[in-house]
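Course assignment 3, question 2. Fill in each field.
Student: A.L.
Task: Predict the tertiary structure for the chain below.
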Amino acid sequence: MTSTATPVAATPVTAAVGADPPRGRPRRPRSAWLLLLAPVLVFDAVLFLTPIGRLVTQSTHDQAYQRVLKDPLVVRSMLNTFEISALSTLATVVIGYLLAVVIWRRGPLMRVILFALVLLPFWTGVLVKNFAWAVLLQDNGLVNSALQGLGITDGPLALLHNRFAVIVGMVHYLLPYAVFPIFAALAAIDDRLELAARSLGAGEASVFRRIILPLTVPGVSAAGLLVFIISTGFFITPVVLGGPGDMMIANEIDFYARQLTDFAGASALALLLTLVVSVLVAAYQRILRAGGEYEAG
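Answer field:
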């Protein structure tokens, strides 16, 4: 007994499987994309690798690393750099988070106005902002006058030429770098999550702690990392607003290069700063990744 196969009726699926691939614009091969990007890649490589190579070459002369690491002022400046950067990053992220939440809760027109105010530090030079803070924080400046006028203090506080003034100036400059990543994370939150939580009886604090804060951790992490990296290279702010004990590593690099004309030492300091920051960034990212895997598991 023989059986014959019943032909399968053509359907859109079988027709699509058996049909020739549609003819459209031919896909550009990967080599063509690399060829188009080659000028940009070469330019970036030269622009980045040439200075780094120059620093590496110069830093190997005259026992530069041994000399700078034995300099107590260099060690003190390096410690100042990471201490001031950490405090500035913490203050910037906290204030930036509050500002981002305020902007997020406002309507479109008010958002534009508030974003413009946040961007004001980008529209003025660093030196101008620092001298403005020097005027505000001096003994007879606006801040001390207001504190004394309100009866909070009996005399002027030492608000200038110290670490507090340096951190204030740095936070003012760094705020936009924290506000925008955090606002982007807030804007990506689905409004229905908050509505569902409130409909189930969750209060304002519970909604923030269980929904908003966990979902904005990536934005906060990005903001903190960006702000910290930028803050390690501050140069003008410690000079204008800080005291003799508040100099950062960028000031030491300038001292070695301009005052001592020790370019080998300056190169060694620059590479040491780059290396330490890179290690800290890698450790920070690893901690965040481990925390994410722990929560997922």
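Instructor remarks: The two ends are 59 Å apart (CA to CA). The chain has 14 helices and no strands.
Grade: pending
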